[in-house]
Amino acid sequence: MQSPASSSLFPRHIWTLLGLYCVASLAHFIHNAEYIAFYPNMPAWLTREKVYLAWQAVASVGVVGIAFSLAGWRTAAALCLVAYGALGLDGLGHYALALCSQHTFAMNFTIWFEVLAGVALAVCSASLVGEQIVRGRRNTGA
To answer: What's the pTM value of the predicted model, to 2 decimals?
Structure first.
């Protein structure tokens, strides 16, 4: 039997995906910030500092999800993680500016690492939301 505190936490695979996506996102944003001048067709207004601020904004969505989980708000927490993971799709915007072939191997690797890890987190978290909705309906008799 689970204790009340542990029942509010995410299943292990969600924590694993959350950690993986956090690492992937940070790796992509660090690479983007440090090599901003080499990313093809990046807007001139986008600076190293703004890239780091953008990562903080993205990461804050995940932090809110963790806080909701610790507070026992499992569905809200999982929805935050769906959004957090989905934000990883934003990396594909690089390909609206320049073809994949115009990016270096490291650029493509960090972009796709973030995208794939984000999608995995979003899909698994959405599945968790679905399970919680079904469980809630069963418990209410709806």
So the answer is: 0.88
Q: Give me the helix-helix angle, 48-70 and 12-34, nearest 10°.
A: 170
**Which residues have a Cβ under 8 Å from the Cβ of 61 and sit 6 or more positions away?**
80, 83, 84, 87
Q: Which class for 71: exposed (0-12), middle (13-18), buried (19 or more C-beta within 10 A)?
A: exposed
**Contact between 39 and 107 (Cβ < 8 Å):** yes
Tens of pLDDT along 92-140?
Answer: 999 999 999 999 999 999 999 999 999 999 999 999 988 877 777 666 6
CA separation for the pair 117, 121 (Å, rounded): 6
Q: What is the pLDDT of residues 13-28, one digit of tens each?
A: 999 999 999 999 999 9
When computed from its CA atoms, the radius of gyration of the chain, rounded to whole angstroms, is 17
C-alpha separations of 95 from 9, 52, 120 in Å = 36, 20, 20
CA distance readout (Å), 28 to 3, 5, 11, 137: 37, 34, 26, 40
Angle in degrees, 0-180, between the axes of helices 74-86 and 105-140, rounded to the nearest 10: 160
pLDDT in tens, 69-83: 999 999 999 999 999
Rounded-to-integer distance, Cα 32 and Cα 11, Å:
32
